[in-house]
Amino acid sequence: MSGLWPHGDGDKEYRVRTTLAIKTNALLEKYFPERRIFLKSDQDTRFIRLRPVVQLSAYAGVFVVVGWAIVASAILMMDSIGSGNFREQAKRDQRVYQERLNAISVERDTRAEEALAAQQRFNTALEQISVMQSELLASETRRRELETGIEVIQATLRGTMKDRETARAEVVALKSEGAGEAGPTAAAVLPQMDFMAEALADTAAERDQILADAQDALGQRDELEIELKLTQERNDQIFRQLEEAMEISVEPLDKMFRNAGMPTDSIIEQVRRGYSGQGGPLTPISFSTRGEEPTPDELRANKLLKQMDQLNLYRIAAQQAPFASPVKSAFRFTSGYGYRRDPKTGGRRMHNGTDFAAPHGTDIFSTADGVVTHAGWQSGFGRLVEIQHAFGIKTRYAHNTRIRVKVGQRVSRGDHIADMGSTGRSTGTHLHYEIRVNGRPVNPMIYIKAANNVF
After folding, report:
1. What is the pLDDT of residues 33-74, one digit of tens each?
2. N or C terminus of the chain with fewer C-beta within 10 Å?
3. Residue 443 sits in the same domain as residue 389
4. pTM of the model
């Protein structure tokens, strides 16, 4: 018998375990007394013994299953309620976003109309200034001619007066001579005196007329100077309005490109090269100074024209970059850009785009002008549309149920290119939207958020 039982420390440990098991079984029997289940057949009767430990395990299993069912039901209910609230919040945000877009669009149109009206007023004012400057120059030329004529007349008048004095002296000398010679000489001199008196009278009248014309010219010059000053003030006001309108129009576009990480200088230069045909809409324009030093108004006008050219370039560049959302109806974001838990394998994996969830068949739109480079099935992406845009940007629209474009087709921002589905490696209806710059994936929300204050 000594070979069947452990000795020493092992014997003590075995006794302790045995005693503990007996006590535990006795304690459990108070609450879970041993039961037997009899199974009777035609030939035999058997039973199954349910010990306290087995009963406790069964009760614990039932409790765990019931508890898990309650917790799972609560989680599903909370998720359903939260999804409903999120959808309502998304709808409200969508409505607010649409209202804001409409308000911004109206404000932009108003600013454009104001800028166009200001430009028309500016052109009209420039024409008026040109006419008034021509009139002022003509008036100045006429004044100088009148002054020259007055000087000539005054010189002639002085010469005539000298001749008259000389003639009077000769008359006096002739009178002092003999009486016999006086009669014929006086008869010869008197007609000359009358002629000289008439000439002097005509010269004085002509001089008075020239002085009156000179005074009128000086008065007209003063009136033209006052009118020119008023026109200059109106032009300055028009310049200020145009400069404010340009600043309001250009600054948000510049901020949008910079927030998206796009260098504005290189983008504008690239767009300008693409529209550099002779006489094209983007050829820089400016006021000619005819080789002379430009005036302050000409400098301001050239600056405004340069800003208008820059605004036009920004507008074209913004149309060619994906500053828009691919889904316009109600949706919710189900997954963002970055590392996440893979819905298929459960592992950690990089997600190179943003997921938009909406009903099956929801319209999907191009986010910028471009050319379709892929329109078909591609492994895990399912039915995929890929569009190449300017500046090395490419967009992808995956898991579609239907594709509405073909390879090589040119599309514009807002064109309907596909219908939302769940093809490829997908767990439900949604759009997987990617933006790649020179082959490198970037967060699409950078472009969508950058356009919030513009479009």
Report:
1. 777 777 777 677 777 777 777 777 888 888 899 989 898 888
2. N
3. yes
4. 0.45
Residue with tokens 């029997």: 29
HEC-encoded secondary structure of the chain: CCCCCCCCHHHHHHHHHHHHHHHHHHHHHHHCCCEEEEEECCCCEEEEEECHHHHHHHHHHHHHHHHHHHHHHHHHHHHHHHHHHHHHHHHHHHHHHHHHHHHHHHHHHHHHHHHHHHHHHHHHHHHHHHHHHHHHHHHHHHHHHHHHHHHHHHHHHHHHHHHHHHHHHHHHHHHCCCHHHHHHHHHHHHHHHHHHHHHHHHHHHHHHHHHHHHHHHHHHHHHHHHHHHHHHHHHHHHHHHHHHHHHHHHHHHHHHHHHCCCCHHHHHHHHHHHCCCCCCCCCCCCCCCCCCCCCHHHHHHHHHHHHHHHHHHHHHHHHHCCCCCCCCCCCEEEECCEEEECCCCCCEEEECCEEEECCCCCEEECCCCEEEEEEEEEHHHEEEEEEECCCCEEEEEEEEEEECCCCCCEECCCCEEEEEECCCCCCCCEEEEEEEECCEEECHHHHHHHCCCCC
Does residue 196 belong to any structural domain of this protein?
no
Which value, to the nearest 10 degrees, does the dihedral of the CA atoms of residues 284, 287, 293, 296 take? -100
Q: Could you list the residue range(s) of the whole structural domain that residue 275 is in?
A: 262-320
Residues in the chain with pLDDT < 70?
Answer: 1-10, 42, 83-84, 171, 174-175, 177-197, 243, 245-250, 260, 274-292, 342-347, 453-455
| pLDDT for the residue numbered 282 | 43
Whichever domain contains 443, its CATH number is 2.70.70.10
Asked if residue 442 is part of any domain, the answer here is yes
> How much is the pLDDT for 85?
72
Give the CA radius of gyration of the chain.
51
Distance of CA 56 to the CA centre of its chain: 70
